Amino acid sequence: MDYTVMIPAAGSGRRMGAGYNKLFLTLGEKPILVHTLEVFEKDRACTGIVLAVKPEERPSIQDDLNRFGITKVIGFADGGSERQYSVAACLKAHVTGGIVLVHDAARPFIRQFVIDELVSTAAKFGAAIAGVKPKDTMKFAPVGIVEETVDRDKLWIIQTPQAFSFDVLKEAFNKAKADDFLGTDESMLVERMGHPVRIVESTYDNVKMTTTEDLVFGEILLQRRQQEDEK
Ligand code: CTP
Ligand code: MG
Fold first, then answer.
1. Ligand 1 binding pocket, CB closer than 6 Å
2. Which residue of 66, 82, 175, 188 shows the fewest CB atoms closer than 10 Å?
């Protein structure tokens, strides 16, 4: 089943502390952004990539696309001040139907089987998001004093990709805009319409490159992927 993917890449990487957009930092020899794009470049079901970027970063990103042979970018959108606005800009400018994925540019280690499962689940049910179960004991403690140990079998740590049928996502973004609602992921916008969102079990290595420790982990994951590919 074919899909298009919207990739917000217009952040500033404040928590990484590099002083510039963390997506330009390299893992191995390639920028993080290129690793992420390569996943979709290789997936035959992906028919197009829409990238939200800061206008001033677009020329250097275009250079990287040329340099690393990324051919599937069908459009750019100007990133906004919040991630949600960056995704909204992609949706408005370039995506018009079918199954749509949203994936953080900062998650280069997403696995193909998770993408496949998200796309087929979204095609059936309208909305599907990637997640993993917590490994640690989880406590509810709103003011730092434990009120309850939460049953962790009922909890999920949510990642991207998040997959939707275009109509569901469009309606959710329209409603969020009308209500001035800002969510931390696309799923929240869909949830508040009352539309069920299914969780697809992802992998623990689909980490978001957020702080410098993640880069250390990222280098090791990259080596492991290269070894897997050689087998
Ligand atoms: N993003 C975006 N537009 C924004 C903010 C974030 O397109 N206004 C993108 C980032 O480039 C990243 C993804 O959304 O690929 C997830 O965001 P996050 O990991 O928080 O990245 P940053 O916002 O860049 O990092 P930080 O929050 O530490 O500043
Ligand atoms: Mg951020």
1. 8-15, 22-23, 52, 79-83, 86, 104-106, 208, 210
2. 66
